[in-house]
Amino acid sequence: MGCLSWKYQVLCLLSFLLHSTPSSFSSSLSSISPCSALLHFNRTLSLDRDASPSYYSYRIQMCDNSYPKTAYWKEDTDCCTWDGVVCDRTTRHVIGLDLSCSWLNGPIHSNSTLFSLPHLRTLNLAGNDFNYSLISSKFGNFKALTHLNLSNSMFFGKIPYEISHLSSLVSLDLSYNYGLLIETPVWKNLTQLRELLLDWSNMSSIRPNSLMNLSSSFTTLSLHDCNLQGKLQNNFLCLPNIQTLDLGGNWNLDLGSLPKCNGSSIFLKFLDLFETRFSGELLDSIGNMKSLKHLDLYNCNLTGSIPTSLSNLTKLTTLDLSYNSFRGLLPLSLFNLPNLSGLYLHNNQLAGPLPNHVSGLLNIKNLYLSSNFLNGTLPSWMFNLPSLESLILDGNQFIGEIGEFKSNSLGYLDLGYNKLQGSIPRSISRFVNLTYLSLSSNNLIIMLELEMISKLKNLELLDFSNNSLVSINNNVTYTLPKLSSLNLSSCNISEFPILLRIATTLQILDLSKNRIYGQVPRWLGNVGRDSLYFLDLRDNLLQGPFPTLSFLGLESLFVSNNKLTGEIPSLICNASSLKVLDLSHNNLSGMIPKCLVHSNVLLMLDLRMNSLHGTIPASFSKGNNFRYIYLNGNQLEGPLPQSLANCGNLEFLDIGSNKINGTFPYWLEGLINLRVLVIRSNNFQGHIGNPKTKFPFPNLHILDISNNEFSGPLPRKYFKYLKAMINVDEGEVALKYMGDGYYQDSLNVTMKGLYIELVRIQTIFTTIDFSNNSFSGEMPKIIGGLKSLKGLNFSHNNLTGYIPSSFGNLSNLEWLDLSFNKLMGEIPRQLADLPWLEVLNLSHNQLTGHIPSGKQFNTFANDSYTENLGLCGFPLSRKCNSHAAKKPPPLALQQKDNLETENGFGWQAVSMGYGYGVIFGMLMGYLMFKIGKPKWIVRMVKLEQHIMLRRLKKNAQRHGGKK
Ligand SMILES: *[C@@H]1O[C@H](CO)[C@@H](O)[C@H](O)[C@H]1NC(C)=O
Ligand SMILES: *[C@@H]1O[C@H](CO)[C@@H](O)[C@H](O)[C@H]1NC(C)=O
Ligand SMILES: *[C@@H]1O[C@H](CO)[C@@H](O)[C@H](O)[C@H]1NC(C)=O
Ligand SMILES: *[C@@H]1O[C@H](CO)[C@@H](O)[C@H](O)[C@H]1NC(C)=O
């Protein structure tokens, strides 16, 4: 029976399927007519527009005009005429099949009749959805195949070994099948191969060097984001015919240094090596690649200067050298490249001014120069670029005024963190496409005139923070329908901008550090009613009761440093998404709402320095999320709830300066993340006793129980097992701070005799403060094992006995206060070996004998030793002789307050800070103190105020700006 007419084709196929045995299957498959094979193949698939979505990356553009080719196939016509089908003119064999972007949806199994087209030379099924089919080993049967393209079509699993049998293959494209596993280097056997594209597959088990010795006729090698690992002796650039080379995103791939290739790589058009590792500099020879259009070396660890030879590459449209360590002057000749559409030099260390004149850049869309050391004024050409869409210059040192833009095309403008002056250009009002506008942290004088921004209907982010906002026109008649982030922090404003009233889509609002005073207007409660999740009103002059806000979606609320009075409203219990709540430094009274403590979401609760009273609610729930709890400086009373033991993630607990009573909270000793425990200045009492667990407080760095009524012996066993205080590997943690930077971790501690606020706390900062209690007995020797301790304060107790010589092992100790006890005997000589000891107070004891001399001890003054009748030697005027012990010290010495240090900095500077009431002053004192001692520094780096905004911006840059 002939199988020519379509009516018989299906019958033929059925009879063939019925009569063929599995073993004869594949041979019989190839015996059916190609047209019926195609028809049957088509029947196993359905059509779905979503199977071929248009796809765009920086290099490929796919399925822009997709349509279902097979829908136009006509069954009773010759399949050689069908769309996408190519037949050999003489033999009538189907030799080509192109069904790319044809809405095909469904699996391709090994029994598919697709595999009975043995004469296929080209096969393109890219841009469809084959439902995570495995790539069948039958693909290895297309012996004549020269071009195989299965990219972006939802194949899955391993590529079959049989692909290596396609010995005529010239082009193999399996890219964009996410995670496709490549375990065999099939290309090694394919001698005709010129193009290999496997982007997004998983090549982690392939040795990069199996890519060596590719045929000299290779034109395309594209393996980005393939998880290639290890070192690659890099000769690709020297392949004489290479045109496209893309190894980007293999961040474990070490390419060594870029090779020099004489005369070759002149055809290279596309070179993308972003996020691979290089060592060293970019060589001048890169200027020989005259055909280059796209050069992306983003984040490649390159150093040195940017070669000026790059300006020979006149065909360049994209040049990305961002996130490297390029130094030296900005190469001005790059600005004359005629065809550039994207120039990305941000996040390097480039210096110098911008060119005064440019001849290129007529097509530039994206100009990114942020985070360098560029200076000078913004040249006029910058405002005349006709195609400019993103201008990102933040984080440089530009001065002068911002000019008026000529074109209307800008969508993204960031001039923040410079030294610009003057006002904002009026031309901004014409940017109907503008989505992102940041002029933050300049010296601009901004009139928030509504006519100017009212036309920016696409504006999503507006950041004028840290400038002088001189006038806000508060007559509103417009909306900014897309505004999601508004930052007017540090703008010197004194009232809530009414434009907020209509900002219904707002997600992030920052009005901190202004002079906004009085009651919060009622309408603020409606701002971003369903969208607001971040609200910062810190550091203003807000008064009256707590504002009625829409708490629904709120995640972070900062209202600290205002003058709010009254109670925390129970409405706050509606804030079921609240993660961070900072109401510190107000005048709030009443009780802590139970719901706050009961929350399973709250991560930080900061109610410090208010007038809250009552007990701490006892209902911390199991599995809660708390990491920071600060209740310091209120009038809370009653016991510390035992349910705090449910806070498995807790890192900071500060309940100092309240009226809490009870015994030492040993039930917290199982909190493995607890770093800071401050219960100072409360009414705790009794003996501390022994720990109940083997390793109590395994992560504790700061333990402050001072100013309570504890009594009995010092808790020897606790000291024995405080793991985190025994050994901190400083090399490893040197620059880590406590917390995750989400919230600025700050804490009041007593340091060197002063009660101060640390704004960020280094993880190696470890102190113990037991002062002002009634501890008695001797100091246990075991304390000498707490090698990481920076500060130890046992002053104002009833301790007796000797100072253990083991204290000489506290090699990190910087201050030691044992004053006002009943210690006796000699000061152990070993203390003189403590290299970092800066403050020593042993006054008011019964110590005797020779004060150790040498090293740090040469820097301590008399008041370290006052009221110890038996001490003698430097710095005391009393000489050590047999009668010394009996003479009282001269009165003048006791009172003289002279603690000059080796750095020439005295406590005067510190008390100046005190006088101003500025904690920071004291810390500056401390910092000055530390200069020249690089070992550890309590860095006062203020966390960026606007983490959230910066984060948002980063996303915008990555998604909107490029890639
Ligand atoms: C191919 O399959 C599609 C979807 O199942 C169908 O619409 C089309 O008519 C088929 N073409 C032929 C010639 O059968
Ligand atoms: C082809 O194979 C698949 C999966 O093994 C099976 O579900 C399907 O029924 C087979 N089709 C035919 C016509 O045998
Ligand atoms: C190379 O191709 C030949 C011929 O198709 C095949 O027999 C052989 O197994 C292949 N070898 C490898 C390593 O792929
Ligand atoms: C970066 O390059 C330097 C040499 O310039 C090299 O020492 C260093 O290991 C490189 N870093 C990485 C992460 O590859």
UniProtKB/TrEMBL annotation:
GO terms for cellular component: plasma membrane. Residues 1-26 form the signal peptide. It is a single-pass type I membrane protein. It comes from the Eukaryota. It is found in: Cell membrane. The chain crosses the membrane at residues 905-929. The keyword Cell membrane applies. Belongs to the RLP family. This is Leucine-rich repeat-containing N-terminal plant-type domain-containing protein. It comes from Quercus rubra.
